[in-house]
Amino acid sequence: RFCLLKMASTLTESFLADLEELGGDSDEEEEVVGEGESEGGDEEGDEMMDLTEGAEGNDKVTTEAEGLAEGDDVSRIWKSKRMQEHIKRLDRIEAITGGQESSAPDMEDLEYRCIYDSMSLTVDIDTEIGILHKHIRDLYAEKFPELESLILHPLDYARVVKRIGNEMDATLIDLGDILPSATAMIVTVTASTTAGKPLAEEKLENVFKACEEAMRLDELKQRMHTFVQNRMESLAPNLSALLGTGLAARVMGAAGGLMSLSRIPSCNVLMLGVKRKTLGGLSSKAARPNEGLVSTSDIVTSAPPDIRQKAARQLAGKVTLAARVDANKTDSTGEVGRKFKEVVEQKIEKWQEVPPSRQVKALPVPDDKQRKKRGGKRIRRMKERFALTEVQKQANRLAFGEKEVECVA
Hints:
This protein starts with a helix and ends in a 13-residue tail after the last helix. The longest helix is centred in the first third of the chain and has 53 residues, at 2-54. 67% of the residues lie in helices and 0% in strands. It has helices at residues 2-54, 59-70, 72-79, 81-97, 105-140, 147-150, 154-164, 181-192, 201-235, 237-243, 245-255, 258-263, 266-269, 298-301, 308-327, 335-352, 377-386, 390-396.
């Protein structure tokens, strides 16, 4: 035991000695690196001094850069590769087709992809417009803090800000072409009595850039909506008449195209676009896990909650039939889709009707006609057998107006 303890102590001492040697080497390396960094830091410091000396006479450029840095989040969507490629595809399709329907398979695939991207990018554009609205509102609150409570729509807010600018006398500005007359009057009166102060030139220029950015995004959004509406009415007129152009494009995108959607049974169409929900320990009674894209249709959401699942199944069946009609180019007017929509709406109305109350039927009129019956010795004997005797007849007689005698045994 003594030998084992001595061996363990020597091993421990050698291990500690090795650690001290390693620590000494690392300290020396840190000192060398620190000296190199200090030398490089001096060189970088000289370069920074030269840059600051050269930028002393360009204060306007630096302030504009600072203003743009504040709006980096709102202009990021224009720099994205996805947006640039999508705009190029839009230009290519409009240049080739000229707004007409194209029967080429490669062009149909390109249009499917472009329609799906347009629907998804529209959501991103709405998000960017919301960020822009917050950016403009935070900067312009110094000039007109009450405007944010008077105008809630982001684009109307940007148009009014661009129209008013730094003008303190709002009576000189006409807002009738932007806002309703009552709202324009309230904004004019409030702007005349506001406690805000004019903005600096750099900040005002940054606000104007953000307003122009929001309007450009809105123009691009309208262009995408027009493209989706036109192309969906030519590619899938019946499906668009049944679901609407926006939802029809999303359903087609989730299925992988019109031909793929036409091959899917209605029970699987109902599950297109279903997102797995994380309940987090909450009750799953109101989770509705089987709600796909079809369940977000106006026809389904306008129905009462107790029959929405039933309405979604009915609509999914009509979606499959409309997709097959469009895939085979049977009807290009959309009349079949409109008839399907009417049928679904009529069934939903029928389900909501109150069931008729049960009526009490009167008894039928008694038939007292004498029927021909077989007579004879057998029938007479049966009647005599079941007939009342005289004793029974007397027992059944009741005397009215007389007190009965009770016999107690």
